[in-house]
């Protein structure tokens, strides 16, 4: 039994860490902002000209779209992005949500 416990202690964190992937930063980060200041574009494309700061992806572990979006919004805010352009959401057979989005910043006109 001690071997099984040790194996679980090694593999457990690896399995759990697969649920959240670090953002793929492709643009310039800015000072973090409050998550509630990040505008979420869920169905409509942003009307402004924008630059992509990072690609965000979450894989399962979220029991509602709102909790998944809150995580992505928080990640975008931490990068100083003013918007979250949601590209895809999916509900698994396990009733967990995953999705991908772009953390964006509107350019001045």
Describe the fold and architecture.
The protein is built from 2 helices and 5 strands; from the N terminus they run αβββαββ. The model is unreliable at 11-18 (pLDDT under 50). It has helices at 2-17, 65-78; strands at 24-25, 39-41, 50-62, 83-91, 97-106. It has a single domain (19-106), classed as 2-Layer Sandwich (Dodecin subunit-like), CATH 3.30.1660. By secondary structure, the chain is α+β, with helices and mostly antiparallel strands. The relative contact order is 0.23. Strands 1-3-5-4-2 form a 5-stranded mixed sheet, with helices on one face.
Features:
globular, 28% helix, alpha+beta, Dodecin subunit-like, 5-stranded mixed beta sheet, 109 residues
Counted beta strands: 5
Number of helices: 2
Major sheet, described briefly? 5 strands, mixed
Q: Strands across the major sheet, in which order? A: 1-3-5-4-2
Coarse shape: globular
Give the termini distance in whole angstroms. 64 Å
How much is the radius of gyration in Å? 16 Å
Total domain modules: 1
Q: Spans of 5+ residues with little confidence (pLDDT < 50)?
A: 11-18
* Class by alpha and beta content: alpha+beta
Secondary-structure element string: HEEEHEE
Mean pLDDT over all positions: 84
**β-strand amount:** 25-35%
> In CATH terms, what is the fold-level topology?
Dodecin subunit-like
CATH architecture: 2-Layer Sandwich
Helix content: 25-40%
CATH class type: Alpha Beta
Give the arrangement of secondary structure elements.
Blueprint: H1 2-17, E1 24-25, E2 39-41, E3 50-62, H2 65-78, E4 83-91, E5 97-106
Parallel strand pairs: 2-4
Antiparallel strand pairs: 1-3, 3-5, 4-5
């Amino acid at each position: 039994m001690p071997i099984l416990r040790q194996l679980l202690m090694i593999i457990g964190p690896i399995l759990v860490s697969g649920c959240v992937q670090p953002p793929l930063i492709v643009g310039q980060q800015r000072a973090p902002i409050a998550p509630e200041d990040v505008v979420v574009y869920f169905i409509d494309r942003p009307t402004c000209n924008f630059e992509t700061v990072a690609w965000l992806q979450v894989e399962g572990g979220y029991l509602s779209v709102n909790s998944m979006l809150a995580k992505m919004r928080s990640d975008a805010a931490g990068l100083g992005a003013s918007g979250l352009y949601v590209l895809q959401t999916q509900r698994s057979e396990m009733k967990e949500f995953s999705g991908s989005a772009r953390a964006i910043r509107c350019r001045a006109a």
